[in-house]
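#lab-general

N.A. 3:47 PM
ok so I finally got the sequence cleaned up, no stray characters, all 88 residues accounted for. can someone with queue access submit it? mine expired

B.Y. 3:52 PM
send it over

N.A. 3:53 PM
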Amino acid sequence: MAELKFKGNRRMLTGLVVSDKADKTIVVRVETLVKHPLLKKYVRRRNKFMAHDPANECGVGDKVQIVEYRPLSKQKRWHLVKILEKAV
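B.Y. 4:20 PM
back already:
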C-alpha cells in the first residue's frame, strides 16, 4: 500500500476493523478513555467510523490507522492510512 500524503492538520485515529463486507469500505471501531465528570473514573467510549479502503486489503480484526477525509458518501468521511497489525 502506498503512503498517502494529506495536507493540513487532520484527525488521525487508530482502531479495529469490525466489518469489511462492503466493497472498498471498512467499519473501524475506535475506543477512547473519557473521565466521568461526577464519578472521576475513566469510562471507555466506542465510536464506529466508515473508512475508504481502495484496495480491499483489510480484514476483520486488523488494527488500522485512519485519517479524516472529504465526504465520499453519506457516511464515509475517513480514509485508510495504513494497517498496523494484521489479524491472526
